[in-house]
From TrEMBL:
One of its GO terms (biological process) is intracellular sterol transport. One of its GO terms (cellular component) is cortical endoplasmic reticulum. It holds the Pfam family Arv1. Belongs to the ARV1 family. This is Protein ARV. Mediator of sterol homeostasis involved in sterol uptake, trafficking and distribution into membranes. The lineage of its organism: Eukaryota, Metazoa, Ecdysozoa, Arthropoda, Chelicerata. It comes from the Eukaryota. PANTHER family: ARV1, PROTEIN ARV1.
Length: 228
């Protein structure tokens, strides 16, 4: 059980989200700094929280990052990774027949994305910690992973036959906005500075991807082949 929370309006640390006055009587706590309700999202449906997160509201991000306990965050990371890998693999293999070579290429795509995402996370965490010494690195990394949910939007776009270049542009823009909000929530830094950090990290990551992308292309031919 979590022992500390934050006010979703001002980010001030709080000890509790609600007070219990009886077995059936709860009252939401108020922030000691801004006097707003600490976290009204705890009374709302998850769908409302998700909609506000899609709308890039800081309150929704503070609720998800600080006030919602996730026991095994690595499961979310694996889920997001597999979704991203499946979308990339499907887009590259459209029109190709099934076989052992395709399976090999999917595994290589997963490894490629693990390295790519690790580079992005490391760059963002390093750049943020250069200026915000009090920022918790582990918490920031977890927040960045949690706010990578936007990448999953590329999968239905591929399944529905949408134009991949347009879908990729929209998903990337949404992903970067989510990463900026995650950095703002955890570090307390301003929008402009965090946007520069995220954009710089993304550009460096893409440079590394371009440098390493021939490995994926070579795997189309170097992977295990089925024999008669």
């Amino acid at each position: 059980m979590k022992t500390s929370y934050v006010c979703i309006h001002c980010g001030e640390k709080q000890q509790q989200l609600y007070k219990r006055y009886g077995p059936d009587l709860l009252k939401l706590s108020r922030c000691s700094k801004c006097n707003h309700t600490v976290d009204e999202y705890i009374e709302m449906e998850l769908s409302i929280v998700f909609i506000d997160a899609v709308l890039q509201k800081l309150e929704a991000y503070r609720h998800l990052i600080f006030n919602v306990g996730v026991e095994r965050p690595w499961k979310l990371a694996v889920f997001f990774l597999l979704g991203e890998a499946l979308e990339l693999w499907m887009s590259r293999q459209q029109g190709a027949g099934a076989g052992q070579g395709l399976e090999w290429h999917f595994y290589l795509t997963c490894l490629f994305l693990v390295a790519s995402n690790a580079v992005f996370l490391a760059l963002v965490v390093a750049l943020v910690n250069l200026c915000v010494k009090a920022c918790n690195r582990k918490h920031l990394a977890w927040a960045l992973v949690l706010c990578s949910y936007g990448k999953l939007l590329a999968l239905p776009a591929t399944l529905w036959g949408c134009d991949r270049s347009q879908a990729h542009l929209l998903v990337t823009a949404f992903f970067l906005c989510s990463q900026v909000q995650a950095c703002r929530v955890v570090s307390g830094a301003g929008r402009s500075w965090t946007a520069v950090v995220v954009a710089t990290s993304y550009l460096l990551q893409q440079a590394a991807v371009v440098w390493a992308s021939p490995i994926l292309r070579l795997s189309d031919y170097a992977g295990p082949q089925e024999t008669d």
